[in-house]
């Protein structure tokens, strides 16, 4: 593409739809266009780039190396255009009907997303909110192409394409069942180490923050159970003498449904804290600026964890 002034920018929308959805029919449905219109646009794109761009493989159109090379820049450019158009108009929460997609790790959705929904909907009753899981290695791309508007996560490596806002940290507490024979409102390190523990994480291997802190002290605890969700760990704690360490906000939500003893963790743990992320191309988006301010106000004061 050598002459942008003579290039139909609508073709880039069609290229992006075919790339994302793997076919002409799916792209046509997404863009609410006819299949012949998409096929005609694809022919123009192929002629412009002097490359087939997509080749058929089974029921899908698979991108060529040339298509993969331009897919990222095309998505970022389209995202930038959308933001520029949005920025040209004011954002009225009371009248807005747009959808906001917030990247939240699975383990972090439970403690604070419901309160965020309540706050947002109180000011913008017609907007839609989506909590979306994501892979950290794809975060820049998903924010650039609009699959996510914002993301909440721990501290990540610096990237010039991302903007971030530090939300703070919160303490870790230890949950034990009521009537535990060795825990009664508090726990010391010796008792903590003598009991068995549960880890709740989506990672199949690796230590928890507590294990890394203990290793620095030359100590180790016995992890008897590893599960994927805090609710599962909470259920196990309720019917055993095992302990479960988790951020305070997570524990408070679960404790309201199924009361436990919540005691202070008897060792220092270094936490990276929680951050709010967005793509630099979305910096001027008035709707996202409004939502970022709400998130910082709701979650930033006490560092509610989304890790």
Automatic annotation (TrEMBL):
CDD domains per record: PBP2_Nitroaromatics_like
Keyword annotations from UniProtKB, A to Z: DNA-binding, Transcription, Transcription regulation
Q: Does the keyword Transcription apply?
A: yes
> Domain of life here?
Bacteria
Presence of the UniProt keyword Transcription in the record: yes
GO MF term (any one): DNA-binding transcription factor activity
What is stated as this protein's family in its record?
Answer: Belongs to the LysR transcriptional regulatory family.
Record-linked PROSITE patterns: HTH_LYSR
Q: Which organism is it from?
A: Sphingopyxis witflariensis
Q: Which N-terminal residues, if any, form the signal peptide?
A: none
Q: Which residues are in the HTH lysR-type domain?
A: 7-64
What is the name of this protein? LysR family transcriptional regulator
